[in-house]
Amino acid sequence: MARPSAPADRVRAVPPVVAGADDDDARADALATALGAPRLERAAWAAGAGGPIVVWVDAAGFGLRGPARGRASAVRPAPPPPGGRAGREPLLRAVGAGADVIDATAGWGVDAGVLAAAGRRVTMIERHPVLAALLRDALERWRAEGRPGAERLSLVEGDARSVLTGLRADVVLLDPMYPERGKAARKGEDLTLARLLVGDDGDQDELLAAACGAARRRVVVKRPRTAPPLAGRPPTGVLVGRTTRFDLYPPSEARP
Ligand SMILES: C[S@@+](CC[C@H](N)C(=O)[O-])C[C@H]1O[C@@H](n2cnc3c(N)ncnc32)[C@H](O)[C@@H]1O
Questions:
Q1: Which CATH number goes with the domain that contains 94?
Q2: Which stretches of 83-234 are assigned E, i.e. beta strand?
Q3: Is the residue at 40 inside a domain?
Q4: pLDDT (tens digit per residue) in 64-102
């Protein structure tokens, strides 16, 4: 299965794994082995080794630590707060009445969490092995904690361009990395860390075509408000928010 390549000016695709405490060593070892990543001792990391971003393992789960957040704490996938503002999310309006959704660019799982908390069944697809590992770990914890919606979330690690050929859902959501996300989005440390790790996403024509082939009702593409449409393809409907835009596309007729 194809893996994304990190542009040369960004960090390597799989950064080193650091254990936050001695008790976390065994899990950090297992994660490093699973990812094929180097292990880095805490003392070496504290002395400045390991590059700009590391995978951090501690009692709160797997996360990333990088330059944007200094060394204060790791950033991890986080579910929306219970009883939050999910009902008013523009994302929910864009997804409409669809009961099951494929989030084909899951990233930190934020959008997937909003949709699941609002009652949708969500299949997350993520191709970057580190983000997939973070999501898998978070999902296990959310289920163990009984987080609302956690039982409606599932994860497939792989490239959505191929994974989508074997799946169907009412709605497919796409939110690939965009090179210029606008001032507000660039302030988000979680997005900055994910960008450092993943780089910018290419392959947009193929991704949109695969999404249209898997959707029964519509494809929703999340974009910065002023960005051009994905793959240069004009949408058939648009919902515009303050910083974000949702472009809507019909399913393709090629797949029964
Ligand atoms: C901007 S982030 C998505 C953020 C996400 N909407 C959230 O709420 O956290 C884009 C993610 O899509 C993933 N991605 C891009 N193209 C993909 C593909 N073809 N298959 C699977 N994942 C993909 C990237 O690895 C990255 O993690």
A1: 3.40.50.150
A2: 100-103, 121-126, 153-157, 169-174, 215-224
A3: no
A4: 998 654 556 788 898 776 665 545 689 999 999 889 999
Tally the domains of the chain. 1
Ligand 1, atom 27: nearest CA belongs to which residue?
107
What is the distance in A from the centroid of ligand 1 to the CA of 18? 24
Q: Cβ(110) to ligand 1 under 6 A?
A: yes
Is 199 touching ligand 1 by the criterion CB < 6 Å?
A: no
Distance separating alpha carbons of residues 111 and 64, to the nearest angstrom:
19
Q: Is 24 in the pocket of ligand 1 (CB under 6 A)?
A: no
C-alpha span between 224 and 237 (Å, rounded): 16
User: Is the beta carbon of 131 within 6 A of some atom in ligand 1?
Assistant: yes
This prediction's pTM: 0.90
